[in-house]
Amino acid sequence: xxxxxxxxxxxxxxxxxxxxxxxxxxxxxxxxxxxxxxxxxxxxxxxxxxxxxxxxxxxxxxxxxxxxxxxxxxxxxxxxxxxxxxxxxxxxxxxxxxxxxxxxxxxxxxxxxxxxxxxxxxxxxxxxxxxxxxxxxxxxxxxxxxxxxxxxxxxxxxxxxxxxxxx
Length: 167
What we know:
The chain is built from 7 helices and 5 strands. By secondary structure, the chain is α/β, with parallel strands linked by helices.
C-alpha cells in the first residue's frame, strides 16, 4: 500500500507523512525530492510551476509508486497533488490511498511564516490555493481538517484507513 498525503504547501504533508511512516514502520517518500533542479529554482525565485513543469515530475513519482508496489513495499508519500488529474496519474491501483490535509488560507499561511530553510517562496501560497482542486466524492479520498496536532492527525488517518495494527 502507498498512502499519499496531499495538500497545499505548508499544510503539514511532510510532518504528518514522516510521523505516519515511522509509526507504521513504512518507508517515507518526499515528492519534492523528485523535482528536477529547474523546478526547484523556479519556485525558489517566486514563480509558480505550470502543468508542463509538473508532468515529468508526476511521471517520476508514478514510476516510484509502481516500483514500490511491485516490490511489495509499503510507503507514505508527501506530495502536493493539487489537481484531480495529478491524483489520477498517481493512482496506479487500489493500493494507492489518498489523504487530503485541508486547511484555510489563514491557518496555512501561519504555518508557512514559521517555516525556514525550504525552497517554497511564501508568495506562491496563493498560487497553490488557486491551483487546488479539492477532491470530489468519487475520488475516494480521506479528508482531514487541519487544526489538530500532528499526532492527532496521524491517529485519525490510522483509524480511518484501518491501519491501527499495521506495520
